[in-house]
Amino acid sequence: MVSQLANSEQLPQEAIGAEAVTEFLEACDDDELQKLESISLPAGRAAYSVDSLEKLTAQMLATGCDLFTARQTLFNVERDWRPPADPIGEPVGNPAVDRVLKIVNRWLLAAERRWGTPATINIEHVRTAFASEAKTREYLKELKQRAELNEKIVAEMEARIGVQPGGSSSSVTRWLALARQRNCCLYCGTFIDFFTAEMDHIVPRKGPESTNTRVNLAAACKECNKDKSNRPFAVWAEDTGRPNVSYAAVAERVRNLTPYDNFDGRELKRFKQEVLLRLKKRTPDEAIDSRSIASVAWMARELAARIKYHFRSKQEITVGTYAGSITADARRATGFEGKVELIGGKAKTRLDRRHHAMDAAIVALLRPSVAQTLAIRSNMRQAENLSQRHTGNWKQFDGADHAAQKIYAVWRQHMEVLLGLFNEALQADNVPVTQNLRLGLGNSKAHDDTVRPFCPKGSTPKRLGDAWSVEEIDRASTPQLWLALTRLPDFDAKTGLPENLQREIRVKNRWFSAPDVINIFPKSIAAIAVREGWAEIGSTIHHARLYRLAPKKPGGKPEYGMVRVFMQDLLRHSSEDLFTVPLPPESISLRTAQAKVREQVLAGTAEYLTWIVSGTELAFDSSAFESGSGALKDFLTILPETNTWTITGFYDTARITIKPRQLSAEGLENQNNALLANNQAVCRILGVKGLQISLNVLLQQTVEVIHRNALGEKRYGDAASNSLPTTVQLKA
């Protein structure tokens, strides 16, 4: 029965008890099946195995004891026993989930070391929090399609009824319900239209709130809605005097619902079945309580269990899990999002990445009672919008009883204090935006997918006896070939190799003579030899090493450059410090560096400064660029306070790509400020391209290369840093 109700697997007919379960379910009437359907059991993860359940059941039936006593007797455990949980950061096999678990684990352990065991931990779960990038894109695509459908419906409403009702979700819901019901009252079949229809809850909920799901909403005539009042349909239909109102008649109308909106056949069938179940229900839905507002996402609950288990030996802590909608309700209820001073305006804006910190601060102050009050307020507001009865009662609701009202009032006071503290932190730039850095080699692709021939059709092959320029030698397909060419007696570091029809070299125990064709890359590019061809490795840059070059003349101005270090040159050094591994002259990293940088690095005259990776945080005074020209000047004209940047790529041998650390292109789509949304420089720098800037230009002023600890604080070099990267200041 457990397996059948959990829907975790198909119950084999030969399984012990399968026949009895099938017979039992077939004998149940609709009400009994509905009650069984309401039982929620986990699919795949349970506290007890089937074997344990069988033993516990047998023990309780044999002795008449309760579960706790049976568990103690059979397994010799304490009454407060809980199944062991995995460590907080233990991977589950899903890359997106594992990434979040690692971040949470690192942050919590650092906070525990700094401040001790927390009393309360709150978790906000949003739909995409533990989703992969592909799933997130799919979800966002679904949201976009839904928004486009709503826009289409609003346009149709305007065209057909001549009035645009503002495009609110409640108006769209009413329009869709009428379309599915073919403009007939679901209860009596009377003709109704957009202006005469009223939205009714098929099954009411205990308390002031309602169940506002699509399957519980019916478009009804005024007379039916008034007569039904606040009763379940099944109860009202038995004693009403309204004509054509009965379960059989309404069920027939439900079966004839029209698939107006984005329902496919399967969804419409399931929708009808769920509506029929609601029509049979005789008791009101349970009132909203702390259980109904807690996040039901499996991973949020799993994380909460892991956190509780981690702190179990120190003290009992409270771990709350809340859906993201509760956080949004908290922001609106206190006016927080209209007073916070983020970049882009006094409101929550996705333009400023620090809006995540705002949500985290709000979640930290949540309590179960407050969350319950917020959920009821939101539910009442939605019900008013759907029913078109705008009494405003939800605005005055501040708790179901005196205790809840008192807690809610104190919470509002705390939120006012939090607002002031948060705005102060924003003004002082004390809300850092952090990003995980990949410092290991990892297991990403070694090269691009496209493999190209060394000598395409129409090109002239390079023979060993030909004259070779230094640039052509640097394009050698392997480090061994480069070494063989540069060790020839007639090689010159400035001019290369002259023509020599007697030339011979040996590469990996293979001899080549002057007429032999030698494989070189067709252009100066970072690449490796792959399957009788070559492939680019520009996307495999592990890090870049920054250098200050000696001035050309005594007392002259120094220049700056970098060596991009490719994974190919680090594969043999995976167990060493990758950032200090010596780079031989034949390495692809040095062969593709700027000539002046390469020359001084090999000569030992270049001063090593530090290393950077994709994701490294840079801080510098942007005002120095306001008097210049180009995209950066235009960008700073609108957003002059931008002083922290993130490296997002290495554009070429001399330039890096950077983006503002605190800003996101995501916020431009919904940005009310047309000056921001329509500015080409802003869109380009925040978009895919970013800003390409010369290292030599950038490092002519003081630049701080910032590395942070798990708490977001700058990490400086000391004995406690455990060889972790530290913040350095590069002075011009």
UniProtKB/TrEMBL annotation:
Keywords assigned: Antiviral defense, DNA-binding, Endonuclease, Hydrolase, Magnesium, Manganese, Metal-binding, Nuclease, RNA-binding
GO MF, any single term = DNA binding
Q: Report if keyword DNA-binding is assigned.
A: yes
> Any one Gene Ontology biological process term?
defense response to virus
Instruction: List, for all copies, the residue spans of the domain called HNH Cas9-type.
Output: 132-293
Q: Which SMART domains match?
A: HNHc
Enumerate the Pfam families for this protein: Cas9_a (PF18470), Cas9_b_hairpin (PF17893), Cas9_C (PF18525), Cas9_Topo (PF17894), HNH (PF01844), RuvC_III (PF18541)
User: What does the record give as cofactor?
Assistant: Mg(2+)
Top-rank taxon of the source lineage equals Bacteria
What is said about its interaction partners and assembly?
Answer: Monomer. Binds crRNA and tracrRNA.
Protein name in UniProt: HNH Cas9-type domain-containing protein
